[in-house]
Design a protein that fits this description.
It is built from seven helices and two strands; from the N terminus they run H-H-H-E-E-H-H-H-H. By secondary structure, the chain is mainly alpha-helical. The chain folds into two domains: 167 residues, Fumarate Reductase Cytochrome B subunit, CATH 1.20.950.20; 38 residues, no CATH class.
Amino acid sequence: MRAVGNSKRGVFDPTTRLMHWLTAGLMLSVFVLAFSIDLATSRASHTVFLQLHRSVGLTIWVVTLVRLAWRNFVEYPDWPSDMPQTMRVAATASEYALYALLLAQPILGILQTNAHGDHVNLFFIGQLPALIEKNRPLAQQLLTAHKAVGFSLLGLIALHVSAALFHHFWRRDDTLTAMLPAAAAWRTLEPRADQTREADAAPSRSVDSGMPNSAHSLN
């Protein structure tokens, strides 16, 4: 979803689109790994899933910081001209809620790991230093918060996807195609809703004036 509309361009810049879909792929991976932890059939596989889950979570945190920084250097496409103000506010609020949870969730995970007495082994390259000391009661509270934020993220992501599909199939605007990897190609194949309406209205204007379209083009 677009947070602001301040550009005449019809699509997001390539870097923004790349980071958006990179985040989506990483989020899919981190949730698959999270559910795989409890399904592990051995201690070794449990450790692998757990450390990969933590590592991917930290990667999402870094990518999110880069995305927020990158926003200051680019312009986003305009809102659809017929999009109500309430929908714009809701889209902005949900987007920033996603950013907030994406930043908070990995930190909660690291703190919970340290409070439990463990360390994050970043992609099995090396252990990160502990941020807090071992504290099992605190670790349990942090785990509860970590799970709550995780389910909140799932809900917001589902809302985000549903809104994009609503814009594409119901409102028939450019909200979804503006973020697709091949956004320009999609737009050449699928005209904007306002362009479609103008094209549909053109024959009626010609009939009302009593002149065919070819006559208008000659004037």
